[in-house]
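Severity: low
Component: inverse-folding endpoint
Summary: output formatting inconsistent between runs
Steps to reproduce: submit the following structure tokens with default settings.
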């Protein structure tokens, strides 16, 4: 089926211009003014609307088995909800249990994802280490289109990666031309603080943010970044929630390190007052890690996005319904960590980003789609409106007004973290590889229509990093060749 998107303004990360877009055989075939409707093609009237690359959510957890339960949105319902909001691709996570064979976990997640209605790919988490893990990383990069490995620095006693694992995995990643990603929270500190707070008699959801202060995140982000610097591997820090981790990223970027940062729509727009709500279900629904922060951190995160020190936006979509959250009724440590948002990311960021003037439309496209495609090496197939790209497109009505609610959303969860938020601007039509999958407020999706997207390794990284290491080496071992007395004099000056 061919589709002609007519009369809209195409908006990419680079520019905006009036053009029609013709989609054929799942790809963008032509972009131009006044393209004639081919015989048998359907037409989408985009008059007064924007035609943008479909959103890419680089951080989701569909049907994740986690903290004794399983996330309620599976690959079918979760990707469908994404399409309803203009997100046409997710990058989810394979998370092996410690000691579980990595390829076995990968194959399990691939099987679960077969029912996806939109395209998907996988980061693979490294949760333990031995020679088989190293070999499996190689197999994943060389034969299965995986170019990113995730490390949870939190969740002690479960999937936490300690420094030894980070060093081993990062070293292997750079050898393979892969990027490493980190959930940055000091897991040992969190564990100790959780115990302390619980022992003080704070057992409700308000204990959750107290056990995970921003310093815990900043320390871990800085540590991961510095380990990556020494080993010369590019690094991506997921779900930055606070000034401290943003500062670690900004500092390293200013020093020329290849560091990327992600921010969640939720962290930008929801503050920590939710944990002080007396209604357990409400407060527990917002329990995620890192937690929502105070408004001053939110302001910093917006600045990070505006300055380009944070490059991507995501949701960390990982839903648990009230009966699942109730596992932690008497102990906040047992509340399954995770919230939703895949359906609303594009509209809340448009409303609070573009409509407020914080972001230009082009910057919006960059942070919701194109930058993720570039960082994870699937650009321009994804994240672009260009001839030959996959026809993953959102037609955006800037005048549409809606109030977000769990009563009307497509996400398979009984609450919505943006409940009651009125937004102006939302998807009128979503195309997934050239097929209209959302129009007139209705989904028209096919179970299993989503395809796995291979992400090739970054051939250039290894060479570039080797060159950089060679340049840096002489500086690192530079000796003070001045006569001893002069050197000593200098030293005492510094001391004083
Ligand atoms: O609380 C969260 N974020 N749950 C999902 C797992 C993770 O840490 O990303
Ligand atoms: Zn995380
Ligand atoms: Zn996550």
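Observed output (run 2 of 3):
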């Amino acid at each position: 089926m061919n589709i002609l998107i007519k009369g809209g303004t195409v908006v990419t990360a680079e520019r905006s211009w009036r053009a029609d877009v013709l989609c054929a055989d799942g790809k963008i075939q032509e972009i131009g003014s006044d393209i004639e409707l081919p015989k048998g093609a359907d037409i989408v009237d985009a008059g007064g609307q924007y035609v943008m690359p479909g959103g890419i959510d680089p951080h989701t957890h569909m049907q994740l088995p986690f903290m004794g339960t399983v996330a309620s949105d599976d690959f079918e319902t979760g990707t469908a909800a994404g399409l309803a909001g203009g997100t046409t691709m997710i990058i989810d996570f394979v998370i092996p249990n410690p000691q579980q064979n990595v390829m076995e976990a990968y194959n399990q997640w691939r099987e679960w994802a077969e029912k996806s209605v939109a395209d998907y790919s996988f980061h693979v988490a490294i949760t333990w280490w031995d020679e088989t893990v190293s070999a499996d990383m190689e197999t994943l990069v060389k034969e299965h289109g995986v170019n990113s490995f995730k490390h949870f620095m939190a969740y002690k006693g479960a999937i936490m990666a300690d420094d030894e694992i980070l060093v081993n995995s990062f070293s292997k990643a750079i050898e393979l031309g892969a990027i490493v990603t980190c959930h940055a929270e000091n897991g040992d500190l969190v564990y100790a603080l959780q115990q302390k707070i619980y022992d003080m008699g704070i057992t409700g959801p308000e204990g959750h943010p107290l056990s995970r202060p921003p310093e815990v995140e900043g320390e871990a982000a800085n540590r991961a970044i510095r380990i990556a610097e020494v080993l010369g591997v590019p690094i991506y820090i997921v779900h930055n929630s606070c000034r401290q981790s943003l500062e670690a990223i900004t500092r390293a970027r200013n020093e020329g390190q290849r560091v990327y940062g992600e921010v969640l729509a939720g962290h930008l727009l929801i503050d920590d007052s939710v944990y002080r709500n007396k209604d357990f279900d409400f407060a527990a629904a917002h329990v995620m890690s890192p937690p929502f922060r105070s408004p001053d951190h939110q302001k910093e995160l917006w600045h990070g996005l505006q300055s380009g020190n944070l490059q991507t936006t995501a949701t960390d979509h990982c839903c648990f319904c009230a009966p699942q959250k109730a596992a932690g009724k008497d102990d906040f440590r047992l509340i399954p960590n995770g919230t939703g948002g895949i359906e609303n990311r594009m509209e809340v960021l448009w409303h609070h980003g573009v409509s407020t003037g914080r972001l230009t439309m082009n910057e919006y496209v960059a942070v919701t789609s194109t930058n993720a495609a570039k960082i994870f090496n699937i650009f321009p197939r994804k994240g672009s409106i260009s001839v030959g790209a996959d026809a993953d497109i959102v037609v955006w009505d800037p005048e549409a007004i809606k109030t977000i609610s769990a009563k009307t959303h497509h996400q398979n969860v009984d609450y919505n973290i943006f409940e009651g938020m009125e937004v102006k601007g939302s998807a009128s039509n979503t195309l997934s590889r050239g097929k209209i999958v959302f129009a007139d407020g209705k989904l028209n999706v096919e179970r299993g229509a989503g395809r796995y997207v291979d992400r090739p390794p970054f051939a250039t990284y290894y060479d570039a990093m080797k060159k950089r290491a060679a340049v840096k080496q002489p500086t690192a071992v530079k000796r003070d060749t001045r006569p001893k007395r002069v050197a000593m004099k200098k030293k005492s000056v510094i001391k004083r």
